[in-house]
Structures are given as C-alpha cells and as structure tokens.
Design a protein that fits this description.
60s Ribosomal Protein L30, Chain: A; homodimer; 2 domains; alpha+beta; 348 residues
Chain lengths: 348, 348
C-alpha cells in the first residue's frame, strides 16, 4: 500500500480528459461516467445482450508493432462483432484498462480514439470503466451491452439437420494480412516470390486485418426477420467457430471447400506462398464475418433480401447429424474431416 | 500468432469446469455462459446499474501474500459495494481473467470460489466473461449489473448545504488490519509495543480487512425510502470519497473528528503504534462502508428506521457551501482543512 502518488493523480486527470473527450448524450442514459455505477433505463420488451472481452499485450497484440489506435479499433470490433452475432444493436461500452509504466497518456488517448472510432457510426456510448497502473503489460477489458426486441436473438444452439450454412463477406483475408505484416516486420528479406503479389492486393489484405468490420447490419437483418436458426461471428476461424455451433446445436456439418468465399487478393497471396487458400479461410481468425444457418425453405428469401440490401452472403454447406462430424469436400472431390486447427487470437 | 496450444485447450476446459460449478438458474436469464453474449430480459420500470472494476497483481493485491480465494472474495465485494452505494440490487456478474503461467487451475477455481462466495447470499449469477493467458501478472476485471426501481438511485451529486453526513459501520479497521498483516509478514520482528494489542482485536481488524462486507441492505433501504440526497462507498478512504461527493454536488463539508465511528479494536491498535485513530479512519481505504447525506428534517426518521433494522449509522458532519472547502474539527477543538491523503487501492 502506497500513499497516493503522482501516477494516481495523473490517472484521475486522464480519466477526466477521456470523459471530456467522449462525453455525449446517449439514449436512456440517466448517469454516465462519474458515479459508483452507470445508470440506464430499460425500455419495455427488450432483451439485453452483454459481452466481455479481454485483450492482453503479448497474447492478443504487440505494442512494438501495433499502433495504440489500431489496438483500440480492433478491440472494439471484437466486441461489436459479438453483438452482431446475436443480431442485437450495440449501445453502451465499459472499458477497464491496466496501463504499464512508459505507456504515455497520449497513447492511452489514441487507444480510446480507436475504440470510439469503431463505435461512432453505431452510436455506442462510453459509460464508464476503470483505470489502473500495470506492473507489466497493457490489459484491455471491454464490456459491451446491446439490445434487441424481446424474443429475438441469434443463438449458437438452434442449427437443425438439413439447414444451410452461410457466411458473410470473404474469409481468410485477415490471416493473410497478418502474415504480410509479420513478414514485412521480420528482419529477413522477403523471398523473391513475394514480389508477385500486386500492391493493391497486399494493401487490401493488410487493411482487412487492421480495420475489420463488424457485421451488425447483417446480424440485425437475420434476427429481425427471423431468418437464421443459429449464428456466430468468426473470431477463432471458420473451422473453430463452426465447431462451436455444432457443439451447441448437437449437430454435424458438411462444408464445400470450393464454395468458400475467398477474395481475389487472398487467392493471389496464397499462390505467392504456395499455401492453400482454403486452409487460410478455415484457419484464419478475426475475419469478424458472420457464420449462420437457416432452413432450406428460406433460401430464396434470404438470397433475395441479401441482394436487395447489398449484403454479400455465400452458402458454404449443410448441417448434418451429429454422428457425421464436421467434414469438408476438397477440390479433388474427397470428403475429409475438417482440420481442427484454428488460431489463437493474436494480432500485431 | 501461434497455433492453438495446449494452454488454449486447458483454458477451454477451465471455462467448462467453472461453468459447471457455478451454473445456476437466474431470474430473467435467457442465455448465460456459452454464446457470443449473455442475454437477459428486462422487467419494465427498472433502472440498470453497471459497474466495472479492474484488479491488478502488484497494484491491488500480492499473490505472494494473499490467497486466491481472498483475492476473489475482495474483488467481488469491491463491485457489490459500488452497487450498494447506488442503492441497487446486484444481479449479474461478468469476469475477465488474464492468468499468468504458473497460476494453477486449482488457484483459478479458488479465486472463483471466493468471488461466488461473496455473491451467493445476494443471489448474483455469473453470466460470462473471458479468460486469457497473461505474459506477466494476474488481472481481474469484473463487471457487475444491478437493478433498482426506475427513478430511484443514490447518486454522488445530490448533497445540499445543511444536509447531515452519515457513515455506516466503523471506519479505519481495514487499514489497521492491513498494517497488522504487513507487519506480520515482514521479516522484521514486531516491536515490543505491538504485544499489547489483544489477540481478539488483532483478529477483528484482520478479518475486517480480509472479509469486508458490502452494505447492500443499507443502500437499498436509503434508496427505496428516498432518505439520502447523495451516497458513495468508502473504497478510497473517507477523506477521498467525501471529496468525490463534494465535487459532484458542488459543496463543502465539515466533519466532526470526534464523531467518527472508530471500533474499540482500531483505537487499541492506534494506541499501540502511537497513531491517531482519526487519521486511520480518514485515510483508510476499502472499509466498504457507505457515506451518505440526508436533509436534517429526516434525522429522526433515519435514526429510528436504522435502529429498527439493526443498521449501525453515525452522523459525522454537515454539508457546507463550496467555499468552505472540506474541514474537520479535531480533538483540540480547532477546525482544519481535511488532509487530502488517501491511499491507493492495494490489498495484500
């Protein structure tokens, strides 16, 4: 136990600076930052969705290679994506931050700037949190609260045998982007073959890694129209996250490897390093796309509505009985068990 | 980025073990642990109270000297106390945990045992969170959600000039207990004078430090009966927390040093080390008592109702205009500015 130090006083100043910078009116807010708890009114007939994510330096990000603003942005997206996967609307944000010595106040503000930038277009309000010194390492814990109409949510447990499996956007880009960043940062010179990746593809993949989107509109559409039987966001990678749906729903799945939506850039990248783009798509985490299941009877409706709304969705497989396990058809036409490899969360 | 390791697999097993151990039915719960977010229904006409606390190894606790169960217990009380200070009822708990190498699964479960032990009598349900490896140090981030009737909450900003200032229980015990623990653990032999502290006083003070209570019933009483104009819990110490009330309410305060409720044990301890018990009471953090203000017209009602309910409350001062600042009358009858010293959160 130590007497209140200059650091503590600096901490209070920092909290005040953050409060000033991000204070804004929020719907149904009674009290934001500055009391023992934030107080919010609840409209009748809503469900509340609460998600908590922890991001640890050296595990989920590396301060040597990632800008604080990017870390903040991606931390917010990880949580927004969880709310998207529930089909809910994100509302209120709480941030707990342990700050190591040497991490400047300027960097803390940049981190918050990134967090709030990701939240701004969704009208999410920062309502509180906690700040502490850290003996070692930066720790960010985020709690995000969202709402949906009562009775409407996308769970992991509703997939039924025969349901189609869909994914939004493209998969594998984030992992390709991360590998490009790591290669760029490593002291080894890039091998010759890498030169054949066009600059625009490289840029696209790195951007997809550093500035992913949360598929909130897609999730809300699926939820509000009751189109999906189950949903999850792709944070661990398609193979790992599909497994979560199968476990919670008590089913198996067959994925068509040829059907996976893989971007031109990701295919080009895979070619330059003689990797299978399907492997990148299956193993790559942090695409933050939505994986969802829906009854075959809704196929035409789903595809028509998605087209009309400008949502990119791709049908990639079908739900099977549990005993089938999780299998994937590869380019050679063979059906094989889906590899269990997925990647740990870690961005740079 | 690393392939999924044994640690990650162990992490999933750990989460499953925790889920099994603490899974129970909660009111208004649609989905607990095991989806992208927890989902809760909201009754009409309630206010939601959300508080987040971060506890960092080496800052708030020391794993060398504190048992994981005690750390968990105290972490829960810190959050329950915030909800108590709002006059709300605690409901749902979310825990983010970064676990360093060498912190055994057994210890993680003990930590959760302590957390849930503190919550059990209040029927708080563990609904989710996140677990990660930590490169260095144990980090615990807790989000606790409570509810109150709409329109009813105890804020920091309502104190008015002339209001009486009250505190629940006794103050200074936790700091005295911490000093006793630290002395016991230090390699230096206890000085002779310490021998005069009776064992029962020593035990009482250490217990008050290791096993504090959150004054939930007192807070709910004050809130439901609309008796208090402002309230805060004593986590930083009476002098620091009174300052928060004064700042948020735009007022000053006069405290009667002689009136502070100081336990017999705390006075005995202060005598053995020639410290002023009033200083212990003002500076000591983590008593988790409630400090509140109320109009003089309610004095008789408050004191009668408290007596009937078995709540210990003590009137310790009066709210003054802002220009008065915060002053305290000492034993010699002089009025002096309240020392600004308070202690950082840190328990051992």
């Amino acid at each position: 136990m130590a007497k209140r130090t200059e650091r503590t006083i600096a901490e209070f100043s920092l909290i005040r600076a953050i409060t000033r910078r991000f204070r804004r009116r929020a719907r149904r807010l009674i009290k934001g930052i500055g009391d023992d708890a934030a107080v919010i009114t609840s409209p009748p007939s809503v469900w509340w969705h609460v998600t908590t994510d922890l991001l640890v330096e050296g595990v989920h990000f590396d301060l040597k290679t990632a800008a604080p603003r990017t870390i903040g942005y991606r931390a917010a997206i990880a949580n927004l994506s969880d709310i998207a996967a529930m089909g809910a609307t994100p509302r209120y944000l709480f941030i707990a931050l342990a700050i190591p010595r040497g991490f400047a106040s300027r960097s803390v503000l940049s981190l918050y700037d990134g967090l709030m930038e990701a939240c701004r277009s969704h009208h999410v309000a920062l309502l509180g949190g906690d700040t502490s010194a850290s003996g070692a390492g930066l720790f960010i814990s985020i709690t995000l609260i969202g709402t949906s109409a009562a009775g409407h949510a996308l769970f992991r447990h509703g997939a039924a045998v025969g349901d189609h499996i869909y994914v939004t956007g493209t998969v594998g880009d984030s992992l390709a982007g991360l590998q490009l960043l790591n290669e760029h940062r490593s002291s080894r010179p890039a091998s010759r073959r890498r030169r054949f990746l066009p600059a625009k593809d490289r840029k696209f993949l790195i951007e997809r890694h550093l500035r992913p989107s949360a598929r909130l509109k897609e999730g809300q559409w699926l939820n509000q129209k009751s189109l999906a039987t189950a949903a999850i966001d792709l944070s661990d990678g398609l193979s790992g996250d599909l497994r979560h749906i199968c476990e919670e729903s008590g089913v198996g799945a067959e994925i068509d490897g040829d059907a996976l939506p893989i971007s031109v850039a990701c295919r080009a990248y895979a070619a330059t390093c003689e990797t299978s783009p399907v492997d990148l798509a299956l193993q790559g985490g942090e695409d933050y796309e939505l994986l969802f299941t829906a009854p075959p009877s809704l196929q035409a409706t789903i595809e028509r509505q998605a087209r009309r709304r400008g949502f990119q969705i791709t049908r990639i497989g079908v739900i099977k009985p549990r005993r089938f396990g999780i299998q994937i058809t590869r380019a050679d036409g063979t059906l094989r068990p889906m590899p269990v490899t997925s990647y740990e969360h870690r961005f740079s």
